[in-house]
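User: Please predict structures.

Assistant: First:
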Amino acid sequence: MKVLAVAPEIFPLVKTGGLADVTGALPGALVGYGVATRSLVPGYPAVMASVGRKKALHRYDALFGGKAAVLAAEIAGLDLLVLDAPHLFDRPGGPYGDPAGGDWPDNWRRFAAFSRVAGDIAGGVLSGWVPDLVHAHDWQAAMAPAFMRYGGAPATPSVVTVHNLAFQGQFSADIFPSLGLPPAAMALDGVEYYGGVGFLKAGLQSAWAITTVSPTYAQEIRTAEFGMGLDGLINARAADLSGIVNGIDTGVWDPQTDAHLAATYSAKTLRSRAANRRAVEQRFGLDHDNAPLFCVISRLTWQKGMDILAGAVDSIAAAGGRLAVLGSGDRALEGALLAAAAHHRGRIGVVIGYDEGLSHLMQGGCDAILVPSRFEPCGLTQLYALRYGCIPVVARTGGLADTVVDANEAALSSGAATGFLFAPGSAAALMHAVRRTIAAHADRAQWVSMQKQGMKADVSWTRSAGKYAQLYASLISRRPAD
């Protein structure tokens, strides 16, 4: 099967979160199922620096305001198609925002162009290569199925994966004439959304199938609480909806070979984690003692429950825990956590920013990781934690609920427990889970058993890639005969 993945970010070239890890790892995992993936990515500066000078497979004289070209490249084992469009993507800052953190005002134009090119490729614009199926990721790529539907590839199957329904790509109606779609597309069963244009909505309406990144999240988004205004449409398409839990790249995330660790280890040599623990303590200015060391590796946002964490930090220190926080986001939350670190010197440490290497070290050295998300489509942090023997303490929602086995009496007695789940999303519920974790940490045999059970879990892409391959095959089988 030939699949075109439409990925607004991809590891290791450009990453703002878990989406890049997924789009970077899934193609390799699919190879074993007879799926050859080419990934279309925007030509951001970091991508173009890696691509270098390449011959164009296709050129545009005028693509949403400027010249553009589709280039082919192979980088880090990925078969890439790069949209070289300097007027859209050659900018400072991040993939979606300026250096000050604000969204680019023409993001609609940038990702409409990106999706339009995906639709053109599906329609056969590249000589000698036409995909059997198009797989679009999140709102930035979700217009691809709409361009296919209203353009030259209505019979090509398409899948939209929702990594986070909270980000939808909603824009005013006045952009519609610039999209190049027929007037009929500006309708309730097309791209229209509450009087404007909804990129993710358009994808959910037009794609042959919809996936989310965990089975529980697939059910949650059918409710008013988690549906973010799209639950009606999602319920109407429930027969085409499935949840496939994410995996991780077990080559990149492997405690036996990870160069970011002070000491590598396996489930048989867990005592070697002590060197990583000391390295984390040193990096975060924490006391060196035997108190449980919790960590948080997260965007500091409301969705991630960081206000819940901020309300609990004093209690965590009072209960005898220590805490290392790595992340950035809401300035008020950053300030609250920094103030807590200043108040509890040696017990709480905070590093504002994003540091891939440090995140690996924290997974390899901390005792437990806190994930108090209000909603979490899948979450990768807890999967990394399981792999590294860092006990997950997570909210009972979305993919967190699907991947962590709570340490209740039955699970502990059977040896199945891998972490601690809590609900509802409150500081009190979080603290109850923290106290359970501290008590479990005091029982060395029980703690090591949980670590080893988590490290045995299959968090790779193998099973999930098989489910994607099965979905692709079922959609392709429905394609009308020529």
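Second:
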Amino acid sequence: MLPLVSLYLVILYSYEIKIFLTSHWPVGWVAYLVLGFSIAGILSLLLIWPVRNDEGHGWIKIFTRFFYFALFPLILLLFLAIYKRISQYGITEHRYFVLLLALWLVFIATYFLISKAKSIKLIPVSLCLIAFLSSFGPWGAFSVSKHSQLKHFEEILNANKMLDKSNHFVSGKEMKWDDRLEVSSLVKYLVDMHGYDVMQPYSHQNLDSLLKKTSDKSSRYSYEHTEKILGLMGLKYLGRWDTKETDNTEQIELRTEGNESVIDVKGYDEYISSIGLNAYYGFKGDTTVFNSFKVSRDSMKVSLNTGKSMLKFMFDKSEPITMNLLSSIDSMLNEKYPDNNEVPEAQMTFTLSNNKEEIKLRITNITIQKKDKKRWVTAVNANVLVRWK
């Protein structure tokens, strides 16, 4: 492992020099490169530690000292990376632990450079102590992260004059795109990690009453909670894939009831459990995505064209089968379904054919984007049954 660690060190040093020369800071993940190198290096040294005093292995002590000395410039890079993220977006659990590990690396590297005892027991003992102390109390990861993100949330809302004197939401205010995106991310994080209760102090309305239909269900409903809380502020939820070009774009998702039900395959020769086609980047309606399958008598390629909302099944030995998804589900788009847009299975099942194949398409979920009067399909997942004529 040591040659690999040494090569990794050369790569990281080259990368660090490039960052400082170009002043182009990577988004978020440089900390994981440094932590990955540190963990690999320390593990390597632990594995060879028992033979460090054996004859012919004196180089281990030299390499150990070199390794810990070489860590300090990378630890500096790690501190700069995490400081940049925290100063912009506050502390989350991930950033808390990255900062904690950076401080731990300083302690371990300093200890092995200046201590004469050099007991490797300090490594697991100190890690266990850190894990224990960071798991509870006002200094713990979850408490610190929650307060940091709530503070960041208040700062953005105050800057946009969206909190009144009693610190409650004020709706109807204009907010810049970047702030709207950041507030959406903050509320989603707080609801996911700490529950929607943390938002109650900011709302005149009782959130238990507002969210009572889904409050007893799993975390998959946190998206709906987030949307409704943002709605109290007069804001629309913006996801990580949203851009300024897709602003004011409504997303509609339909799901089939009983997705986990048994599939009746009687009368068909092939069963494909999922033809997942996802084109979330295709907001302009000009994207085509593909998926290929090897079936017994032919090969089958499935494509989704977002611009035309056209689903196409293509075979090597026969004519393609096409289906306009919007035309097929148009009647469902304006209906209100009582349970999270779940549509009866019969309405989401379609039979298609050409001169050689018959396809039974059972859509499990479909995502439609809507802007102004235009609609287009950006994702579809379905079970497919094929019968050879």
